[in-house]
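Contributing new records

If you add data, match the layout below exactly. Sequence lines come first and carry their own label; structure lines follow with theirs. Keep one chain per record. Anything else will be rejected by the validation script.
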Amino acid sequence: MSAPELTRSGLPGAPATTASLDAPHIVVVGGGVSGLAAAHRLAGAGRGATLTLLEASNRLGGKVTSAQLGPHRIDLGAESLMVRGPALGELLAELDLEQNLLAPAHAGIHVYARGALRELPPGILGALPDGLLPLLRAGILSPAGLARATFDLLAPRSSIDPDCSVAALIGRRLGRQALERLFDPLLGTIYGAPCSELSLHACAPQIAALAREHRSLTRGLLAAKRPPGAGAGSPLRTLAGGLESLVRHLHERIAGDVEVRLGAAVTEIARERDGLRLTLQRDGARAPESVHADHVVIATPAPEAARLLAAIAPEASAELRAIRYTRALSVALRFDPDALARQPTSSGFLVPEQAGRTLGACTYLSAKWPHIGADGELVMRCSLSRRALLRADEQSDREVVEALLGDLRAIIGLRAAPRQSLVARFAAATPIYAPAHHERIARVRAQLDAIPELALAGAAYEGIGVPQCIASGRAAAEQTLARLHQRGRSLRQGAGNPR
């Protein structure tokens, strides 16, 4: 897996900065999408602040990473953008990237159920089809499974526990088959965890709302059905050159205003009378460096944030330490055009855990994105099932690829070896939004109100997708700017009214 070609800047030693009213120092810890979005917003409205971004690794972008697969630039981490909410649109406009957005050619998706690929019915809303007739025609559920799902129409209203998992509600309302063949493949692929471990309120808020407002999920779904033509087209987009181009443009845009230090790991954060003091260890340096900051945005994964907060906010640190992360492994495969008897006409398919396969999901990149399929080659990206991930650490990349190819031969009739393959492993890919996740994050933010110089951003809080991470970074920057303004006003008032 190749890393982006980013210039290593700001590494020569510099004296620790000191706080001043005229030039406050703001430090962003973490150079993933959230940290970059925060740095970009701060640079645009920093009001003369000195800005520094510290990234422990030797590349920016975090889980957004692309690699070259023959003539194709392939995303191995995050693969698409959900173009909903203002934060993403605002950032793309500021970076002049709106014209680079690409829409998918095919948005349909299949599920491997009852020994065949079956198309998910249209009108999916929060993983539920609009009514039972499309589901009946799809053949995803057996007659017994359909009969159990229709019980939802007759069952009394369900109470919604704040700690409820997705599986607890869906299993009770629609039965085990609907849970295993619809909800778990969809949400499990997104969040990397079984529905029994996912918060209903955090991971499926539409379903939670239907359960609160209606006696029956099915009746609620029919009531919420969109009018014909509303919301036509897929909200998914990508960028020409891969999502890593977003990282590159952010880095280029902030380069003149933000000192970017790669290979600079923050080992400790301590409170001082007039701000925060960061201890960091730079690659190749014998001694740690001390840096003063008036404000800090922590935009790291939750375990790292927990470690940095241990001394100054132990309760918040303990809450963040309890957030678990999933592992992930993605494989990009490139084939000759005739590797399949027929070219795919959907964006890919999901494989439920109960199928017992190595393959968990397959995206036909060459069918989904026109710019990848322009030369006629068949390009796929596969991910492992959760069961297969448990043994993947003991397997070589070649063994993983061979196991996936066996499943592809069995499920879609693959009849050729790949011309090229790429394997990317992520030890901590996605935070698990466990039941009561929102309550946990509310407690963390309440505890950090006592440290106004500090803000949090990242995928561990209010959303795991790239757009949510952008929104999180920009929100942390706005919080920092507001508190900086408030602090400056207080200092000016104090200077004008000496005791």
